[in-house]
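Reminder: ligand-aware prediction takes two inputs, not one.
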Amino acid sequence: MSPVSASTAYPSPTVAVASALPKRKVASSVLIVPVVGGSEDDAAAKVVANPYLDAEAVGEIEVALEALGAKGGAEQLSRVVAPSLPVDSVLAVGLGKDRDTWPADTIRRAAGVAARSLSGVETVITTMSDIDLEATVEGLMMGSYRFTAFRSDKTAPKDTGVRKITALTPDTRAATKEIAARAAAIATAVATARDLVNTPPSHLFPAEFAKRAKALGESAGLEVEVLDDKVLAKEGYGGIIGVGKGSSRPPRLVRLVHRGGNNQARTRGADSGGGKTVALVGKGITFDTGGISIKPAANMHHMTSDMGGAAAVIATVVLAAQQKLPIDVIATVPMAENMPSATAQRPGDVLTQYGGITVEVLNTDAEGRLILADAIVRACQDGPDYLIETSTLTGAQTVALGSRTPGVMGSDEFRDRVAEISQSVGENGWAMPLPEELKDDLKSTVADLANVSGSRFAGMLVAGTYLREFVADGVQWAHIDIAAPAYNTGGPWGYTPKGGTGVPTRTMFAVLEDIAASG
Ligand code: BES
Ligand code: MN
Ligand code: ZN
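Here is what comes back for the chain with manganese (II) ion:
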């Protein structure tokens, strides 16, 4: 079996816009058509009005839907044939009750459900783009995602997957093409993050992860710096070294720099985004056994996802460069494997985080905050205006918010801005507080801080409180806990497959765009 490459293991489909259906029959094709519930209860589904299908085609589709009993309910799928159309079949996807405007994520999810249901179809043409081009392209592409890198042809036929998407739009001017291209780039970044998360810990260990990050960064024109374990030890990255030293596969710190801002003109607090600097930090634990504070066996394999924050940060800074955002974006990504062994750190050990704060490691399974603290201090040395850090940090995130809702903490204003933007892109981050009194729970009898609190309360917020200690004064920061949202262990839904989800890549990129636009 060939090892997976640094590019997406399963290549993204190409996206084109067109203002009419093709004249000739397209081989291996499906037309995805949004449908809504009829005006009366229980009425048959109706095709959403659009300028691309004539009355004959709409009639063919609606007659077939009526025969199937399709009612146009949200995300309901019906596959029918319409002989007058230049496609093999039509896939009707329900949007629920008819309305004048749809929320973007309703369209994204419907497109995703439709794309997920297809296998062995090469070309998708859709009229859904008439409602919302961007959401349709994102949903179709995210729903077409497959991870086949580790299937041998002997055990499973390779899913050919969707190769080409044609989005029907009223016009095909450059501005329209630009919207489709941007949506495709965002969905490709999500696929990159998913591929990294889905790559198993046998194949993705710190040095290999750093190598892939470097290849992705260089292909997007980023400056790349990789610090190996010797340099990390020499420069005092005690958190990364402490967590990584139980593994035979030593840790790394990767730095990816996009210089898009005008540094000369850069003034903190200016109201245009040009010249702003944003630091991104992502947790890159390539596998988390818990270390000496070892985790139970049940579901330990889910800890292949413990580098989901790092994956999203790498995908985001690469996307920022591809989209030429007029700001500086500097990603600082600590990578380590948390293993128990004769060389592992022990509960009770004291380490010195980068920058000098000492920590008593009471629980080696609270390792994320140890590598992140080093990375946050390093990231703040660049003098960023904003810092976004994201990590699969606590099981308490899932207890508090469930499997699909990231917890967003940080400085009040920026936290709220990140949460609001996360809602708008459908990743649905939710603002959470960092109550002052929690800091007392992190007191240590021997060091400046302990890495865990003695109480079972508010585990997600305690972790955020720990990280706050390392953020430089004056930096607006947000911490996004994606413990469950980064990795879907349930059934697929909407545009979200099982396994790596790519969350919060779209949130972070949208925040970067917002900063680029308004500071
Ligand atoms: N990587 C885990 C958090 C996690 C749990 C992510 C479940 C995804 C799913 C993290 O390193 C961890 O082990 N956190 C501990 C912290 C505790 C020891 C304070 C936890 O949540 O139990
Ligand atoms: Mn852990
Ligand atoms: Zn972890």
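Residues 285, 288, 306, 367-368 surround zinc ion (ligand 3) (CB under 6 Å). Residues 1-7, 264-270 have pLDDT under 50 and may be disordered. We will return to this case in the review session.
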